[in-house]
Specification:
- It is a single chain.
- By secondary structure, the chain is α+β, with helices and mostly antiparallel strands.
- It has five helices and 21 strands.
- It has two domains: 31-140, Rieske [2Fe-2S] iron-sulphur domain (Rieske Iron-sulfur Protein), CATH 2.102.10; 159-367, Alpha-D-Glucose-1,6-Bisphosphate, Chain A, domain 4, CATH 3.30.530.20.
- The protein starts with 12 loop residues before the first strand and ends with a strand.
Length: 368
Amino acid sequence: MPTPTSASEPQPVDPALPEPTGRDQAFLRDIWYFAMPSADLAPGAMRPKTLLGEPIVFGRGDDGSVFGLRDICPHRGIPLSDGRFDRGEVECCYHGWRFAPDGRCTAIPSLTADQAMEIGRIRVRAYPTVDRHGGIWVYMPADPRSTAEPAVPPPSLPSVTDRAPGLVQRMTFPCHVDHAVIGLMDPAHGPFVHTSWWWRSRKSIHEKAKRFGPTELGFAMLRHQPSSNSAAYRLLGGVPTTEIRFQLPGLRVEDIEIGRHRVCGLTAVTPVDATTTEIHQMFFWTVPVLSLLKPVLQPFVRRFLAQDRDVVVRQQRGLRHGPALMLINDADVQAKWYFRLKKAYAAWRDDGTPFENPVRETTLRWRS
């Protein structure tokens, strides 16, 4: 698999980005996706979501355990989320059929005592679901009939994410997940999209050189001191260092260390369907001053994310005409890696081709 070149070499372009095709619209399968923040699912509650075009109802038992079921009753097709979660089971609102968290049917009220029926053989598709790192994560298998263990474990994030997030933002981008992912990882758009007195301006553009290397199912901008034109980092005090990691299917983790303190920003990109993507941005910290500044930080974080959404909205006006698109070195190499990682992962899951991370340690240079 080709290795990205440095900026000192000739600057080839990729003539076009992959188009979403096939039944899954270029979504990765057999991998874990972020569904919602943990706090969104209270004990004894259910919450419907659409992920990768599939209806799923999530629930949490009184003991804190979580589950995910296909949000369609196999009897007459009504959403199970229109029913109720009672005594640890989901009850359909149409005929009272009940289902355990593992998807087994446990009751059909219309059956009489002499009507023998193995109701336990009736099942609703159940999705492996876990609660960790401040979120509900769901495994989306390629085979809807599969009961095999997940091919990969849930994401493992910095230990600071084991506490409740100090700040959470959610936003919907009207685009395919690929455009959301590469837009958020793009290192060159900052001075144009995020121009702000508290962040960056066009006058602050300068050349940057960052060291990158491979990580599990992704790559990382290796630990470094933040750029001098990133004023927001000064709020943390001291001399912060940061490592920014990307991991399939769409996770960006910025891990900041300031002496003995730590701040972690998690951006989770989850496809709703082929034209809609949900972004969750959560921040975890051990820096006491950030808790005090939360009322001030919240609108700034939302504005930052909204700037990314707004430029994607504008982008859709051009994309509807189906233009040929390109990626250049070095500013777009991370986007190239993303598509190569997706291709390698999909090949592994489709035909058993050994997964090989296409990323090699290298220095990328760009101006922003």
